[in-house]
Design brief:
The chain is an alpha/beta fold. A 5-stranded mixed β-sheet has the order 3-2-4-1-5, sandwiched between helices. The structure holds zinc ion (ZN).
Length: 244
């Protein structure tokens, strides 16, 4: 499995986390490319444990060995390195590789009983003066936002949400009118056909395992107006925050 056979030495203590890289390779820098290129590559020029590409994941070094991946002896010794490949190619391909790299990182952190956080999720820039991981930082808005994205992605799927928590939705009527309104979690819409209620509820049920809650509001207790006010207020404050 290993291409480099422990050339950088064996790790004496368990790894402290993962380190993400972007390979600065073109759309052709796939596993097919790396599997033929790496064996002829000078290890001292740098190599990572894993290369995540559109055609799969290539493991170039066993996890029990170090890798010369970040130009820093502490980082090389303590972090398992993941190259997110094809970083100079199509954005969709790169983003998909990034997602697969995060899945790989999740497996690694789990294997070593590590929790995703700033200490366990590193970027190449944490250890050396480099543009790496350039594409991830470009997409996510800088080094810390990129790290935050990785950590959030690593944490989120392991924290099951309560049913409906992610998509807070409801139907409601007002004063007994046949008009049905749909709050989609962001804004309110008047539905113009009963089938719209049926199909929205069916999809919601398939995803969440329960129906969209339905309320009958009245003008004497106008919760529907409060709902709209709350939605609008939220939007205003979000936009204020951006300006500030
Ligand atoms: Zn790097």
């Amino acid at each position: 499995m290993s291409i480099f056979h422990g050339v950088a030495g064996k790790r004496t203590t368990p790894p402290l986390g993962v380190c993400f890289h972007n390979d600065a390779g073109s759309k052709n820098a796939t596993c097919g490319f790396y599997s033929s290129w790496l064996p002829n590559h000078e290890p001292a020029a740098g190599f990572a444990h894993y290369y995540v590409c559109s055609d799969g994941i290539l493991q170039a070094e066993d996890e029990k060995y170090k890798a010369w991946h970040c130009g820093n002896s502490y980082g090389n010794a303590n972090y398992i390195s993941i190259e997110i490949c094809q970083s100079m190619g199509d954005i969709e391909v790169f983003i998909n590789n990034e997602k697969n790299a995060i899945q790989l990182a999740r497996r690694i952190l789990t294997d070593y009983s590590l929790t995703p956080n700033r200490d366990t999720v590193k970027l190449h820039q944490d250890f050396a003066l480099t543009a790496c991981p350039h594409r991830s930082m470009e997409i996510h808005g800088g080094r810390e936002p990129a790290r935050e994205y990785f950590i959030n992605q690593l944490v989120t799927p392991t924290t099951p949400k309560k049913k409906g928590e992610k998509d807070m939705q409801c139907f409601y009527t007002v004063d007994g009118s046949p008009n049905v309104y749909w709050f989609n979690g962001d804004s309110v819409r008047l539905l113009t056909h009963p089938d719209q209620v049926s199909i929205l509820n069916r999809i919601y049920h398939d995803i969440n395992g329960c129906d969209i809650p339905t309320y009958a509001f009245t003008s004497s207790a106008p919760w529907h107006k409060r709902l709209i006010q709350a939605t609008v207020c939220e939007k205003l404050s979000a936009s204020d925050g951006k300006i500030g």
